[in-house]
Amino acid sequence: MAKIIEGKRCASNLKIKITRQANYLQEKHGIIPGLAVVLVGQDPASQVYVRNKGKQAKECGITSIEHKLDTNTSDQELLELIAKLNQDPVVNGILVQLPLPNHIDSAKVLKAIDSTKDVDGFHPVNVGLLSIGDKGMIPCTPLGSLMLLQEHLGDLSGKHAVIIGRSNIVGKPMFNLLLQHNCTVTVAHSRTCNLEYTIQSADIVVAAVGVPQLIKGSWLKPGAVVIDVGINRIKTALGTTKLVGDVDFDSAIDIASAITPVPGGVGPMTIACLLYNTLIATCRQHQIEMLTT
Ligand code: NDP
Q: What pTM, to 2 d.p., does this model score?
């Protein structure tokens, strides 16, 4: 039976460290880290995410400044707000909640964020820095997934990792992170031939697909460590709904040595890493060393 990798507990521990560092910044330097969260439109899931991020930021001693804009906001209006936030010294991190309404050019908006305040790590400068292994902002979900793997496995050197999914926000940055940590990395996607065979040799499986319970326990190498990034809402036999991952948890738990649950696995780490990135951005902008403990 696999060990459950408790993302919630790991995220709580990370938030304790963030709070300690935020208190230190305030007491020693009079600085309160500031995170600006921009939400355009009424998407219910995005509203919940933004509310959670704001609440958890405050709990950690980070000021959260929410900017809620109408669905019909133009590219120009959004770009003007970002330009203001880029200049604002009390704003250390800027997050534009995705997805943006279709009429807005998301790539243009993400490029407009000052790369030193880009706590999501989606700006092309940060994407480039990650790919050359230099100091930038690392996207939150892959960073949180890496932390969970390190907590469970320690050194990742020499492990064969298979990532399923090649999106810019999860799969590709995860590839760069695991490569930096000396894994041998395979990236699978929708055109991969024989996914089952590809996964069979993996010591580490990172599933970021968006297809409920796609990956079966029988596809895994016995003892594999599974990080399930997927969040999918499905209907149950009782007519209610529930959240499941991209991995078929019930069959995987008998084959894997460790697995993240959904919910309560990668999700809590994503938010904790957003706050961690805000802290890193604040320290770098003020040229202050982070506390080590
Ligand atoms: P995308 O839709 O952007 O990417 C999905 C990837 O999966 C694509 O690369 C696609 O391949 C690949 N794919 C789709 N179907 C298959 C298949 N049958 N076999 C193999 N590969 C396939 O999704 P995201 O990366 O944004 O998100 C992935 C999942 O993670 C979603 O469930 C999302 O909700 C969740 N998520 C969770 C977060 C968290 O905090 N826990 C944060 C972000 C996302 P191709 O490129 O060929 O189309």
A: 0.97
